[in-house]
Specification:
This protein is an alpha/beta fold. About 40% of the residues lie in helices and about 10% in strands.
């Protein structure tokens, strides 16, 4: 691979991010002329600089390292130990024979380039935020989905094709006339209300048991991997102990953690438990691409970007129009950018809240407009009736984001709660994603969704993990 090719890739990545060479030079603390020589192929970046540029520009560091002639140490060792076998394997994997291109038939043709698409089954799919993220990677193909809510099913099928089946997953699993399609990856988030701290009656909540149906699908399909998403409290529950036991019994290794969506480019601080299981490789979690610049100078240490902000997500939208959703009647984004009709006292309350303020500001300025329950509750609930900051991420977008008394949902500047379109953007849905149903149902779909951009970051990591499984299994068949 020539310097020209690596330089062009780095230049293209920089332009896609909209970053000027001067800005990149300042960010990395590297001479602008040196970066220009790298982009024009006159010199190759050092290992350290290549890694920093890759992280800043969102490139695949391992791919760039290999293209610049820096093979990983384990691959180098394999070349030294078994050079003929490695060369033979690479030729077969690439479909070459003695230097002459020859794409093989059947399995070898599918294997060539390792760019096959993995089949996905999405359980408790909702609107399909997780699926939307996986599709953005270009590496996944949805083949089955299920959700109990009929409007969510309609939304999923409208955006991804008619393969989402509505109804109770347990009833579906009991049917003799329905066979689940083969899948390489099972994803989904069993309804989390049973685990959530917001649910005061969570003990004995039947929704805590729906993880069993999820794991039953995993057992039936035996996918290469699965990803489960839920509230952070799941990881401290007895149910998670049982999930780990079932996964181990099926030979799945697990990796899990609580991830903050803001660390992956979503303009929202949303903490979720992510569990990744894999049968034939060590699972791994995605590495953060963004960081909280108010707390550290990570940009100069790891090349991560600053958290995305409310301003960058919704700042270009005009004031809302009307009070009803107009999906199918007018083009996005205005189809979901509508307001409400607050009573005069509500408007007066909104005006008391400064940017970043909350119910305590209302109590200080207009005690007469403050609900008695808030006056009695002197601590906690600092996000209730809160106003967003322009230059920070939003807080968790829930299903009733249109009610300011439920959380920090007031627009940073205008005296109103955020609209459905603004909530969808803060969840990282693109404007061309079409929601179906009433405005209440659409709000529920938006609030319950896995942010597509978080799903994309997870998908990129899972695709690389599954690729490694294919490479390993193929190498084993050749070398053994």
């Amino acid at each position: 691979m020539t310097n020209d090719r690596v330089g062009k890739i780095l230049k293209d990545l920089r332009k896609q991010k909209g970053i000027a060479l001067k800005q990149l030079s300042k960010t990395l603390g590297v001479d602008r002329a040196h970066l220009s020589r790298i982009e024009t192929g006159k010199v190759m970046p050092s290992d350290t600089l290549l890694r920093r540029m890759s992280r800043r520009l969102g490139g695949d560091i391992e791919m760039l390292a290999i293209m610049s002639g820096r093979l990983p140490k384990d691959i180098q060792a394999l070349f030294v130990e078994r050079p003929k076998e490695v060369v033979s394997f690479l030729r077969r994997a690439g479909g070459f024979n003695g230097g002459h291109s020859m794409v093989r038939e059947g399995e070898d043709a599918q294997f060539a380039g390792i760019q096959r698409k993995y089949r996905v089954a999405d359980l408790f799919c909702g609107a399909g935020g997780f699926t939307a993220g996986l599709i953005r990677t270009g590496r996944f193909e949805p083949v089955f989905a299920n959700d109990f809510n009929r409007w969510a099913v309609d939304t999923y099928n409208y955006n991804f094709g008619e393969h989402c089946v509505g109804g109770d997953i347990n009833a579906l699993l009991e049917r003799k006339d329905h066979e689940l399609p083969a899948a390489d990856l099972v994803i989904g988030g069993p309804p989390c209300q049973g685990f959530s701290l917001l649910n005061k009656k969570r003990e004995g909540d039947p929704r805590k048991e729906l993880w069993r149906a999820y794991m039953q699908v995993v057992e039936r399909l035996r996918p290469m991997a699965f990803v489960m998403e839920n509230v952070p409290e799941l990881l401290a529950s007895q149910e998670f102990v049982e999930i780990r036991k079932m996964a181990a019994k099926m030979d799945y290794a697990l990796e899990f953690a609580v991830l903050n969506a803001a660390d992956f480019g979503v303009p929202q601080r949303r903490r979720r438990a992510i569990i990744i299981g894999c049968r034939t490789a060590k699972p791994r979690l995605p590495l953060p691409t963004h960081y909280n610049s108010a707390k550290s100078d990570d940009l100069f240490k790891t090349g991560r970007l600053s958290w995305e902000t409310v301003r960058r997500a919704i700042g270009d939208l005009p004031e809302p129009e009307g009070i009803q959703a107009r999906v199918g009647e007018i083009n996005p984004p205005m189809d979901l950018h509508f307001g409400r009709t607050p009573i005069p006292s509500s408007l007066q309350r909104y005006r008391c809240i400064p940017e970043g303020g909350n119910r305590f500001d209302l109590q200080k300025k207009r005690l007469d407009l403050t609900p008695q329950c808030w006056i009695r509750k002197k601590s906690g609930g600092t996000d209730l009736f809160g106003r967003l900051w322009w230059d920070r991420p939003a807080f968790t977008i829930r299903t009733e984001f249109f009610k300011p008394e439920k959380g920090r949902y007031l627009h940073p500047q205008q005296h109103r709660p955020i609209t459905h379109r603004e909530a969808a953007r803060l969840q990282s849905f693109t404007d061309d994603f079409i929601f179906q149903g009433t405005k209440t149902e659409i709000a529920r779909q938006i609030g319950n969704a896995v942010p597509p951009l978080l799903g994309q970051r997870i998908g990129e990591t899972v695709a690389a993990m599954l690729d490694s499984v294919l490479i390993s299994s193929r190498a084993e068949s050749i070398f053994v």
